[in-house]
Specification:
This protein has 103 residues and is mainly alpha-helical. The chain has 2 domains: 31 residues; 66 residues, lambda repressor-like DNA-binding domains (434 Repressor (Amino-terminal Domain)). Helices cover 67% and strands 0% of the residues. It contains 6 helices and no strands. Helix 3 crosses helix 4 and helix 5 packs across helix 6.
Amino acid sequence: MEEKLFNELAESVREGMEIIKGKKQPSRVFHFSSLDIQEIRKKYNLSQQKFARLMGISVNTLQNWEQGRRKPTGTARVLLEVAANHPDALLDTLKKADAQSEK
């Protein structure tokens, strides 16, 4: 590794430790809006069982999300954002996946 890159990386790690310890404020903060998963599901006009299958999750997981006992994170959250904002993209992708699995 080049010395310049190493020094930048080392400085970044030091800065991260200062932020974690509360000695420095982060330069930016990300805020995510909460998702109304039940509303998303109802846009698709699907039962909990069918929407859970569409999303590749268990019905229990979906129920926990809808009732606020748990919150989706990571890939599941991204997929729900796609489901909420781009339903045609999600449905098109699933149709193609189904067609390929039938071959």
